[in-house]
Amino acid sequence: MGFKCGIVGLPNVGKSTLFNALTQTAAAQAANYPFCTIEPNVGDVAVPDARLDELAKIAGSKEIIPTRLTFVDIAGLVRGASKGEGLGNQFLANIRECDAIAHVVRCFEDSDITHVEGKIDPINDIDTIETELMLADLESLEKRIVSLEKKAKGGDKESKEIVDIMNRCLVLLRDGKPARLAQVSNEERKTFWSLGLLSSKPVLYVCNVEESAADKGNDFSAKVAARAKEEGAVAVVVSAKIESEIAVLPFADQKDYLEAVGLEEPGLNRVIRAGYELLHLVTYFTVGPKEARAWTIEKGTRAPQAAGVIHTDFEKGFIRSETIAYEDYVAHKGESGAREAGKFRLEGKDYVVADGDVLHFRFAN
Fold first, then answer.
1. What's the average model confidence in pLDDT over 51-75?
2. pTM score
3. 38 CB contacts (<8 Å, ≥6 apart)?
4. Measured distance CA(154)–CA(137) in Å, rounded
5. What is the mean pLDDT of the chain?
């Protein structure tokens, strides 16, 4: 399991440039005018994880298969998108299909690249996008709640529960606050997500800065980071221009380039880690001579459900998982060494898989 992240923002903030860098393709047209991306472009990107390479080296795996994430480049939203301005309705529907939002915010000055609002103000840009998402949600809920309230008054228990959650969201939206701030219990969460509210999506702010600020950011990105902290969201600093230049270099040359611009790793790595944090995702591994492979699951997933990510039969017939923590696998040079050191464990159906676990599942056919 990975996640599907929609890249949104105002026109000309660097969304398509970032998308091209993330997916290392030229699928999205990066041009200096609004709506250069007419259809959402979708790209899968491998998740870089040094642990996977280390495990493969120890096990002598012939193939390395990382887990993958999906990014969707959604055309630039503008003020009035919730009412269909620009190509608003189409693009809002594209956002609804994503698990999270990567909100690219312009945090650089450049007189050669026009700004749709006529000034560089990242907080105002964030408010513009957020307002359009909230207005779309408000309209959606107000249309749907009327018929559900009639059913609820007629004694329909399910409708009553949905109306209750809808009303909590409406209170927030009418107060200019996103639906993701609604207080919902674990039992209500499935119903909450089923509402498909745009402002309920977890948000990752991607601060697109000039090349010289790629390592530590600038005054603009500091304001975005403060905003993210207030919301309980996540913010990362990236130079889309640098990322696009790294993407076209041979892998062997990328390290030298990064050192030359004062970076330890590509911004892609930071975006992925932030995305994992945002959606509470962790990685486990399966390792053998044939392949070393990474799998992504939600934090708190139990062993049978983790096995089901590989194949549904693994979950149905689950017996146990043979488990070695990543650190123990590496420290003892593989499975046999971990066994001898007493670091090999047999875990049952209630075991919660930890990030970095090396697992082998036993199941009944």
1. 90
2. 0.81
3. 75, 87
4. 26
5. 86
